[in-house]
Amino acid sequence: MGVSMNLLSGENCDYSEAMHEIERAIMYRTLRPWLYPDIIFYSTSIGRQFKANLQLVHGLNKKVLKQKMELTKYIKTSASEKDTENDSVEAKVRKPFLELLLEYHWKDPSFTEKDIKEHVDTIMFGGHETTATVMSWALYCLGIYPEVQREVQEELDTIFENGMNEYISRAVLAKMKYLECVIKETLRLYPVVPFITRENNRSFKVRKYCLI
Questions:
Q1: Which range among 5-9, 65-69, 131-135, 180-184 shows the weakest confidence by mean pLDDT?
Q2: CB 44 within 8 A of CB 53
Q3: pLDDT tens for each residue of 127-171
Q4: Contacts of 42 (CB under 8 A, 6+ apart)
Q5: What are the residue ranges spanned by the domains of the chain?
Q6: Mind telling me which residue stretches traverse the membrane in this protein (predicted)?
Q7: pTM, full prediction
Q8: Are 158 and 210 in contact (CB under 8 A)?
Q9: Rg of the chain over all Cα atoms, to the nearest angstrom
Q10: Angstrom distance (rounded) from CA 58 to CA 55
């Protein structure tokens, strides 16, 4: 999203802890079907804490979105006063996902702020610790399959034959074909998101039955 959380320096730790609590509450509820009805779940202590954590997370996401919107407006205003040469240089810079969403919002008002917020909520939650989880499982797989580990090592030695101080660009990453296969196989064996739920908000018909 282009926003530094500064967790290592002690900032936004309540947000990080809230995300952990939300994940634990979701799994706790998933394994207990009697908690599926909202009226029952939110009457429990874990349900009430889950609701409080959601409010904290949504509050920070809303704050980040507001700050980015104000910053984007300022950049747009400033950019209109620059030379076209400066604009072309700036356009080559890879932008965070949130800024791309905001730019789309400015171009197409039908893509509302609510739509942006839903995307932000999804990415902030879906992207939380997923990379670290995949890395942990990948290292585990490499540990139990030493022959695969050797193949990865040989590939990296070939790529970095001049030393490991080389800047790892996208072009260098593209050469890591075998490592990419290892990561993809890890994701197949240990998916970060093993299932996705959907909630229907309108009635639909299956043969002669109308379901709500």
A1: 5-9
A2: no
A3: 667 888 899 999 999 999 999 999 999 999 998 886 666 678 888
A4: 48, 50, 51
A5: 1-77+96-126, 145-194
A6: none
A7: 0.58
A8: no
A9: 23
A10: 5
pLDDT tens digits, one per residue of 93-116 = 567 777 788 888 878 888 887 888
How far is 38 from 44, CA to CA, in rounded Å?
A: 10
Residue 44 tokens read as: 């429990």
